[in-house]
Amino acid sequence: MKKFAPLIFILLFFGCKDDIDDTIVVANTENLELEDFIYKVMNFAYYWQKDVPNLADDKFTDDKEYTSFLQSFDGPAALFDALQYEEDKYSALIDDYEAFENNIKGISLTSGMVFGLVRFSNDSSDVFGYVKYVLAGSDAKAKGIKRGAIFTDVNGTQLTIANYQELLFNNAPTYTIGLATLNNNTITKTASSVSLNNNEQTEQSVHIAKVIEHAGKNVGYMMYNRFVTSQDDLLKTAFATLATASIDELVVDLRYNRGGSVATAQLLSGLIAGEHANKVFGKFVFNEKLSANNSEIEITNSNVNLGLSRVFFLTTKSSASASEMTINGLKPYLDVIQIGDQTEGKDVGSNPFYDYIDSNEAKNPNHKYLVLPITFKYYNSEGVGDYSEGLLPNVSLRENLATLGELGDVEEPLLKKALEYISGQTTGAISVDTRSIPATFVELQTEAASAIYFPKN
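RE: above sequence
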């Protein structure tokens, strides 16, 4: 007998998990226990289970037909692909749950250079990278890599659509980037290169926290890059400092925040809007089989009360998942002013599933796979959701590669726009500024939005 269960909330979320224990169906000549595990997770918990013919409860007439179906795929990844709803961009099959667990703690093998990738044009397969920010204490920081740096080559090879994953995401211990410049929308390679070392590093989710004196007000500014539950105490400390400074306004920079923990999103909302603690933050809707688990979650009581009537969020298309949940969840309670670009549009969330083999949560020793399917859709307390096209900004201002500026500096374009709003120089009407990337360039989406997940207690 085998079981599968989510990372947490087993009693609340899967009080009926014992009902889905099944004897593993395997062929005599082939071990299909991993495929069996994947299929049963998707059939039971997948948000779009009813919309996928391969997951229909009446698809198989007997065990033989079921086994034959599993055997028809060339491995677990092919099976998983065949079980996804055509519009699902976010469900994932992870082949190393230890790497996943490190990732949700902010731990990764990195040089410390956080970058984006851009195609030269729709007609070109060539790619260049630009640095969004650099992690403190990293090799990239030590070697002088700065925000806005541009590179076109890795290990002497031009980046392309076909090779960028192999060159940049292979976890090699070291790699060399060839630098370039951007002038008048033209990328020009230089003779300079930098060799970078990858090391295991924990990214601090609070990247910047400071108080800015502007227009006679104390403005709190926080750049928050990951919803990491293991770093919640650092988040609380940063907000306690802002509260001590008696800030009048708050700017929360989520422009590169791909998401993370639901519990941390609840906490962040409580730190921003402490006066509304314990009110409904969001509503989760599951599939028909789990509809009894449709539920509400609350704004966490953080014991921090900033006394704000409004909050500013800085966003880009890289703002996703728990970032969007926070913005949408606070709208019923505060005047939310969003500045930047529209967000990605991830209005759904996940629960991770391990292949447990007994009630003591012993994991199957035969593999390290984890299934991360979309399991719920999110709405705020007023029932507002369905923002798969992204949350639109009040003031539209896309980052410009030629003028990225220094993060946290009052002249950095997005922060400057927020400060102009605070001083009355910018209105709340939607306005459109220059595109971040000239029409000749096309940005790639190389990083999936983080799952909105429930961290283990």
